Amino acid sequence: KQEVTQIPAALSVPEGENLVLNCSFTDSAIYNLQWFRQDPGKGLTSLLLIQSSQREQTSGRLNASLDKSSGRSTLYIAASQPGDSATYLCAVIGSARQLTFGSGTQLTVLP
Amino acid sequence: EAGVAQSPRYKIIEKRQSVAFWCNPISGHATLYWYQQILGQGPKLLIQFQNNGVVDDSQLPKDRFSAERLKGVDSTLKIQPAKLEDSAVYLCASSLEDPSYNEQFFGPGTRLTVL
Hints:
The complex is a heterodimer.
Chain A: E1 4-7, E2 10-14, E3 19-25, E4 30-38, E5 44-51, E6 56-59, E7 62-67, E8 72-77, E9 86-94, E10 99-101, E11 105-110
Parallel strand pairs in A: 2-11
Antiparallel strand pairs in A: 1-3, 3-8, 4-5, 4-9, 6-7, 7-8, 9-10, 9-11
Chain B: E1 5-7, E2 10-13, E3 19-24, E4 31-37, E5 44-50, E6 53-56, E7 65-69, E8 75-79, E9 88-95, E10 105-106, E11 110-114
Parallel strand pairs in B: 2-11
Antiparallel strand pairs in B: 1-3, 3-8, 4-5, 4-9, 5-6, 7-8, 9-10, 9-11
């Protein structure tokens, strides 16, 4: 059974800092990995999707990498802003063709 | 492009009562999902539809939960009777046909409180 772990559970950084969020998964046989953002009381917003054949994806200040063989992904946020404060979730789709989520990292960017 | 719509946004009921949630996916999305998200956890898949048919309902507590997708578009999720542990956010998502390669787009969710 696929398990997804996100470390740390919570992170607080000053504005302007670059930061990395970590995601690991136990079964490397995945089709893709998605990073989501969730604001309090809101649904999930898709940030980046990395197919299993890809190594990374970039969108603006966000860069996500994927190392399938080691079962790891990182989300890099450059020049963090208070508006980046949210919970970041990673999820993988494996052979069961369903998303398995981690518990998320709660990010606070201090002005 | 309109996103995934859900209603109601909030619902408070007493245990043993019944409740229903509605979802309208993004136009043209064949696959629809219902997730349960308990506070502090990631979403957990309850049921997945492909057009009208159920693809996976292995984690749906079928003694109290039911779901249907009429005409391959809108979907309803029902809980009857509700228990305290059903308090959670219920998220609906949709994607193009093959979930292996396509992003899932989520609605705002329905926050259910069972007293």
